[in-house]
């Protein structure tokens, strides 16, 4: 039997969010690693950006896999608290390992002479935390708005059914 | 002037966020100096809290103005596009203002770190973004809750209206059949007609109770069934043989009103009736607490009232609408068995 792993596909707004935020996230991480050297050596941009983008893409898809799991496991209104609380775990499960991977890859290959520092771990973590807090709250807002739209549509459908039912009853009298 | 709220949950958001927000803000402005003494920590905390509370009120008022102009759920990105640039500019002003006040106006014992101005602004911008999203989430969460609650009420009203509609379909059929039977009896046997009229009164008193109950005790329904069968036997004589033996233990259970009328009418009018091969109807209960109606089958070539099957279908639909177990109908060559689930006394519906 063939086993195929199918990753859930992120919606359009998440693709846009990723494309818009990645340049800033890459800039922040490059600044954490190279400080002012970043603005003096063009080579750092040319090498660091593609590497961060590749790891960032994998990290983003893993973020979405986790988010998708949460919204399918806890989809309802009454499960909002649970869904939001579990979202905090994404920082430890995906974001922090991704930032650490970036720092260790740059350190291991000594890209432009990078040597990992204790402060880099701290600031790298803060960058990840900031990104997580902003985007996870935004995705939750969008999820809730989609649910509001679904609930309003359902309400309108029932209103229509009720009107039709009342009409049928009157017709039969 | 009261501060306008973005959502009814905004004060909760404010209370949850303000303490960590101020502590981290002070840490960026003054560095670890604020932890030098408890007095210094609380003095800086309270001063910053008062200052940023005013700033928050200004931000909040702007947010409310933008939201009132773009209130739709689909306007999220429009609102955010308008709010965030304003908030970022206001954060620059607010942070510079804080640094100025703590350096030149209020002496807290700690000197603001000039080199941290832009980090503080960055922090302020990130927090403004997050607070905006949280307030948006809270406001829409309330809308979601209200919409679901309204949908639930509408669903109940719809089911109620559908049930009453089904009930309305049943009553006229029975009424006209009774009048036809009575009309025949008056000419044949006056005494019998009087007794028939008494039973008919019982039946119609039951029918026209004037309330819209969804469930009635089985005992009431069985009294009705007995009167109904009397009326029917009066009309068809020995062409119908009935046996009613319902255990007392299930008489307290509940059943949708007029279920027996629908079933009996269906049995009587879809089978051929003759003294030679009488229609046998038996009403009993089973060990699972269901009401069992068995009857012999006598094929009728012409069935005049095509809505009889519809009546039984309506009863089955009614059970489904009430989220009950299914009505089971099993048929062999010579016999049909209808098994009706009974509701427990504490059952509530709608």
In terms of per-residue confidence, which ranges of chain A show pLDDT below 50 for 5 or more consecutive residues?
A: none
Supply the helix-strand structural class of chain A.
mainly alpha
Shape of chain B: rod-shaped
Under CATH, the topology of the largest domain in chain B is which? Heat Shock Protein 90
**Rounded mean pLDDT score of chain B:** 83
Q: Output the radius of gyration of chain A.
A: 23 Å
- Count of all domains of chain A: 1
Biggest beta sheet attributes of chain B:
5 strands, mixed
The tally of strands of chain B reads 7
| SSE run of chain A | HHHH
- Main β sheet profile of chain A: none
> What is the CATH top level name of the largest domain in chain B?
Alpha Beta
* Average pLDDT of chain A: 89
Which stretches of chain B of 5+ consecutive residues score pLDDT under 50?
none
Count of helical stretches of chain A: 4
Structural class call of chain B reads alpha+beta
């Amino acid at each position: 039997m063939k086993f195929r792993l199918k990753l859930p596909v992120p919606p359009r707004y998440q693709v846009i969010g990723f494309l818009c935020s990645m340049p800033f996230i890459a800039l922040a991480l490059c600044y954490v690693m190279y400080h002012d050297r970043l603005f003096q050596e063009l080579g750092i941009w040319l090498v660091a950006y593609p590497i961060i983008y590749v790891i960032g893409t994998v990290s983003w898809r893993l973020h979405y896999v986790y988010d998708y799991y949460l919204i399918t496991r806890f989809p309802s209104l009454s499960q909002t608290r649970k869904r939001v609380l579990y979202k905090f775990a994404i920082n430890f499960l995906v974001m922090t390992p991704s930032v650490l991977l970036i720092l260790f890859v740059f350190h291991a290959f000594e890209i432009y002479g990078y040597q990992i520092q204790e402060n880099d771990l701290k600031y790298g973590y803060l960058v990840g935390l900031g990104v997580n807090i902003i985007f996870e709250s935004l995705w939750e807002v969008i999820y809730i708005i989609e649910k509001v739209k679904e609930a309003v549509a359902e309400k309108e459908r029932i209103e229509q059914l009720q009107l039709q039912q009342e009409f049928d009853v009157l017709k039969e009298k | 002037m009261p501060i306008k709220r973005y959502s009814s949950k905004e004060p909760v958001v404010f209370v949850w966020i303000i303490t960590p927000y101020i502590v981290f803000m002070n840490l960026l402005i003054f560095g670890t100096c604020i932890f030098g003494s408890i007095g210094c920590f609380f003095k800086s905390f309270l001063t910053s809290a008062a200052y940023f509370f005013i700033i928050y009120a200004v931000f909040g008022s702007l947010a409310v103005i933008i939201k009132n102009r773009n209130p739709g759920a689909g306007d999220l990105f429009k609102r955010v596009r308008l709010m965030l640039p304003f908030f970022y500019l206001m954060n620059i002003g607010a942070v510079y203002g804080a640094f100025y006040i703590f350096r030149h106006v209020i002496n807290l014992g700690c000197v603001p770190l000039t080199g941290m101005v832009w980090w503080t602004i960055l922090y302020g911008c990130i927090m403004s973004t997050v607070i905006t999203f949280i307030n948006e989430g809270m406001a829409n969460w309330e809308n979601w809750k209200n919409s679901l609650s309204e949908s639930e009420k509408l669903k109940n009203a719809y089911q109620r209206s559908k049930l009453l509609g089904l009930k309305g379909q049943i009553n006229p059929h029975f009424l006209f059949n009774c009048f036809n039977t009575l009309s025949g009896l008056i000419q044949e046997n006056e005494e019998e007609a009087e007794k028939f009229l008494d039973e008919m009164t019982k039946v119609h008193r039951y029918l026209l109770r004037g309330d819209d109950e969804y469930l009635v005790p089985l005992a009431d329904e069985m009294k009705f069934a007995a009167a109904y069968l009397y009326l029917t036997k009066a009309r068809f004589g020995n062409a119908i043989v009935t046996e009613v033996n319902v255990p007392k233990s299930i008489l307290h259970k509940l059943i949708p009103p007029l279920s027996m009328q629908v079933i009996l009418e269906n049995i009587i009018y879809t089978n051929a009736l003759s003294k030679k091969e009488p229609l046998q109807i038996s009403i009993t209960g089973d060990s699972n607490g269901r009401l069992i109606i068995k009857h012999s089958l006598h094929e009728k070539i012409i069935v005049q009232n095509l809505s009889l099957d519809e009546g039984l279908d309506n009863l089955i639909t009614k059970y489904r609408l009430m989220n009950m177990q299914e009505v089971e109908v099993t048929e062999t060559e010579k016999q049909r068995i209808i098994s009706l689930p009974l509701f427990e006394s504490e059952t509530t519906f709608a």
